[in-house]
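Extended Data, panel c. Modelled sequence:
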Amino acid sequence: MNKKRVVVTGLGLITPVGNTIEECWNSLLEGRSGVRKIQCFDPSKFSSHIAAEVLDFDPSEYLSPKETRKTDRFVQFAIAASKKAVMDSRLNLDKEDRDRIGIIIGSGIGGLHTVESEYGKYIERGPEKGPSKISPFLIPMLIANMASGQVSIYFKVKGPNTAVVTACASGNHAIGDAFRIIQRDESNVMIAGGSESAITIMGFGGFCSLRALSKRNDEPARACRPFDKDRDGFIMGEGAGIVILEELGHALKRGAPIYCEVIGYGMSGDAYHITAPDPEGDGAARCMKICVDDAALKPEDVDYINAHGTSTIYNDRVETLAIKRVFGKHAKKIAISSTKSVTGHLLGAAGGVETIVCALAIKNNIAPPTINLENPDPECDLDYVPNKPRHMKINVALSNSLGFGGHNATLAFKKYTS
């Protein structure tokens, strides 16, 4: 089958470091961290007190008061970022075949705010009166597929519509699956990415109990430090990253802006442990290799990798090992950065935001930095673009996402040429 070419024509962001492309990109380049003491609840009884919250989001800019009451925060983020992406792409939906526009939006956790809020009502009223206070919208507010469902309703688009739930790989899997749909000529346009909002008492508390979060509470901006010897855990983040993927001919016909081309997608499973990565990096390495082969690339073609880079002891070492296994001697020549050092880890939304980072890195020929890399781990001995952005030619970029359960997803992008 003659595969269709797929390009990225629109970007939409809701992040802890800005809700516009310009603001978020500048924050990444300047190393302005979005990590601070948690404001949405009192974290003082937990071991970690810090996260990367979205503090300047107003759902009324996108939804009516009635719609806002019926949607969880992660769905609100998805709608907002999707609207921004559609606007950025200059896509006029009134002139499009809405049956040929689809949506895949991933979320690792879904509507945790809603679960806690509704259970709180039940507990407050007790077993006698509590059941009558549970909202009839509880289920459609909390289920993870509702980001895709609500965005399709918002835009009235009726093409392929599904959702991905693969923990921290959800965003990358969503974009990769959408890429495949357009390649197969099953859709002209796909709205794809990830959305997450799980900084709640239970969500945060669960990660604290796993001992996965940084305890550098007195230095929030310096807490997320991927590949640094003194890293002590990741930082929870929230937000959404949505891209418009478009069949090349369709994009050219309407004169769409083109950020880059999507050229490869790989996915694999570790089959090792529910939370820990395979210590030999087998799953991550196979995933990158599948992606590189799918894109018909040679290892030396890759200029930049946006790493999963969570700032946990095991992830950073394993990802480094996996990159070495795939790229051999060329691994030392690849610019690698973890932008989670600035944004925190957006869980299921991470891949969506980091796809946008790759698109902007290719467009601007700038590799954003890994901030807080002050004392490199000897086992993490590649070029992580420490602390300052690097102006360089970026023709090909990869984005890695690795999720609990051993889910791995890698995407490949290249500078668009006719």
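Residues 168 and 403 are 4 Å apart (CA to CA). This feature is highlighted in the accompanying rendering.
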